[in-house]
Structure formats: structure tokens, C-alpha cells
Amino acid sequence: MNSRRTPGRTVMYIFLAVVLVFMLVPFLWLLVSSFRPNADLFNEPFAVPKHLSLENFRAVMESHPMVLYFFNTVGVAALATVISILSATLASYAMLYRFSSRKILTVLFSMCLFIPTNAFLVPYYVMINKIGLYDNILGIALVYAGVNLPMSLMVIRGYMETIPGELLESAKIDGATAGQAFRRIILPVSKPGIVTACVFIVINSWNELLFANLLNQSDSSRTIQVAIRSFLTTFEANYAYAFAAMVISILPTIVIYAMLTDKIIGGMTAGAVKG
């Protein structure tokens, strides 16, 4: 039996190796290029580097307030995560109870997952301007929270729906209020889904450029991704500086994912099994 599996496993390993190469090679090239002079990247972008230095990182940090952009991005991601998770968790809990428009709401939230993000550009731009939050971290965070809300709702609701109705009924008979049932039963069961949704929202918010660029005008609300774009203008493109800024922006997401890999994979797997 093992001999029959060998060809299939070989093909699988080859396929995984090819996928790994396609994923790692661009990142390694970006990493190496961030230490090369801009002139070398223009003349010989794929040549073996002859000289590596930290000059690009030093220049990026000195020419732009990257520390401010970093904390702006952290603030936006944190606010978006808190707003989206709170909304999704409470909405998921409410949708556990049967009411007339529950199916309609479910369909509407599901449809939002398939609508292109570009379709929300003009509506969000008008709304943020109307409430006076243009060029404001809170305005960008509200947009990110709204964009990530359907996904968060589906993930968290999937966990909540695995709770037997009899358990909630028993808690109600024992005198537990809706709030007590939420804290003692709903939240513990939904914790893996909440953590998974949090990580995805943070990473999506950290890497997002479209809305951040649209809703930003000054350094006070500029995120790292918008700063990276400033190195690639129409009239002057400094790829070496842009690559150095990209490496700076990538490191936090890699650290977050590395620290929470087990919880993310465990949460997604548990959700799939329970669902």
C-alpha cells in the first residue's frame, strides 16, 4: 500500500515545493533588494548583489516620519479590530435568536462578502466627509471596520451556532440573564473564532492601501502603506527606499502571524469541523 502512495506523495511534494518557491523567491528578492542601492536595482535588478548596506533604511527613517506612520497604522488597525469585533460578536449573538428578518440579514451580510471593495470607495468617501472624519485615523478605522464586518460576522457566528439550543435554554431556566449567558457560555465557545477574526482584521488593516490613500491628506493620519506609495511617484521612483519601507511594514505582520499561528489554524480547523 505504501508503494502505491509513493507516486502521489511525490507529486504532492513537488507541487508544494513549487508553491513554496513562488511564495518565497519574491520575498527574498525584496529583502535583498532593500539593502541594495537604487542605481543597482535599475541597472541589474536580478544580479547577485555586490554591495549591501543599511543606507536605504537610514534614509527612509530620516526622510519620512516612519515612527509616526507606524503608530498611525497600529492605531487604525486596533480601532478597526475593536469596532468590528464588538459589532460582529453582538450581532452574531442577536442572530442566534429567531426573528422575522434574520434570514434577510444573513443574506445581506453574505452578499457583502462578494461585492468588490472598489464599489464602496465613493459611498465611504462621502460618508466620512459628511461626518467630518476625513484625514482622521478614526475615519479610516471606521471604514476598515465596515469592510471587515461581514467576514468577522460569518466567522464568529459560525462558532456561536455550534452551541446547542438546549444549553441556552437550561441557562435561562436556571435564572441566567441574556448578559450572563453571553459571558459564561457564548464568549468561551466563540473565543477561537474571535481570535481568528481579530488576526485577519489586523493584517487586512495593516496592509490596506486603497481607502487609506483616499481618506488621507496629511502626516497626522498617514499609514505605512501610503508612505510606501510616496516613494513610487510618477516623476521619481526610488525602488530601493520603497523596498526598505516594505520590509519595515512586513515585519510586524510576520511576527503577529508567527506568534498566533497555532491559534489561527486551530480556530479555522475547529470552525470547519464544528460547522
Describe the structure.
- This protein is mainly alpha-helical and 275 residues long.
- The protein has a single domain (54-274), classed as MetI-like (MetI-like fold, Orthogonal Bundle), CATH 1.10.3720.
- 76% of the residues lie in helices and 0% in strands.
- The chain has helices at 2-33, 38-43, 55-63, 66-94, 102-112, 121-130, 137-160, 165-173, 178-207, 210-214, 224-230, 239-274.
- The protein starts with a helix and ends with a helix.
Concise overview:
The protein has 275 residues and is an all-alpha fold.
Number of strands: 0
Name the helicity range.
Answer: over 70%
- The structural class is mainly alpha
Number of individual domains: 1
Strand content: under 5%
Annotated CATH architecture: Orthogonal Bundle
**Count of DSSP H/I helices:** 12
Name the CATH superfamily classification: MetI-like
Calculate the mean pLDDT score and round it.
85
| Net shape | globular
Distance between the termini: 33 Å
Order of helices and strands: HHHHHHHHHHHH
- The CATH topology turns out to be MetI-like fold
Radius of gyration: 23 Å
What CATH first level would be assigned? Mainly Alpha
Oligomer: single chain
Q: Main sheet?
A: none
Q: Which features would summarize this protein structure in a list?
A:
MetI-like fold; mainly alpha; single chain
